[in-house]
Amino acid sequence: MKEQLIENRPKRRPTHPGALLREDVLPEIGISISDFARRIGVSRQVIHRILAEDQGITPEMALRIGRFMGNGPGIWLRMQQQCDLWHAQREMEKELSKIVRFRVAS
């Protein structure tokens, strides 16, 4: 039985975690950006960059947000990873197309 590679190539850009925080999370819990930043121990500028989608969620930031929200860091890291992979795939498309997939002899 041959193994088949399944590629997940969404056409739409995955939602950046900053957009989720900006559009849904912070308004739903009724907290200001300043208060959110203070409660998780970072500057307002860092939060503004994340909300503007200019900065990604680092593992450290995922730990902070996950702790505050009570949902753990994994969801925040997975969302960021999906965004990063989507962008990298588009930036590297030509280069990746030149790489021949390795096939194990049967």
Distance between the first and last residues' Cα: 10 Å
Unreliable parts: 1-6
Number of helices: 6
> Strand tally, please?
0
**Helix coverage percent:** 55-70%
Largest sheet: none
Report the radius of gyration as a whole number of Å.
Answer: 18 Å
Which geometry do the CA atoms define? elongated
DSSP strand (E) fraction? under 5%
**What structural category characterises the helix and strand content?**
mainly alpha
Order of helices and strands: HHHHHH
Overall residue-averaged pLDDT value = 92
Q: What this model shows, in words?
A:
By secondary structure, this protein is mainly alpha-helical. 59% of the residues lie in helices and 0% in strands. The chain has six helices and no strands. It has helices at residues 17-29, 33-40, 44-51, 59-69, 74-91, 93-97. Helix 1 (17-29) crosses helix 3, helix 2 (33-40) crosses helix 3 and helix 4 (59-69) runs antiparallel to helix 5. The protein is elongated. The model is unreliable at 1-6 (pLDDT under 50).
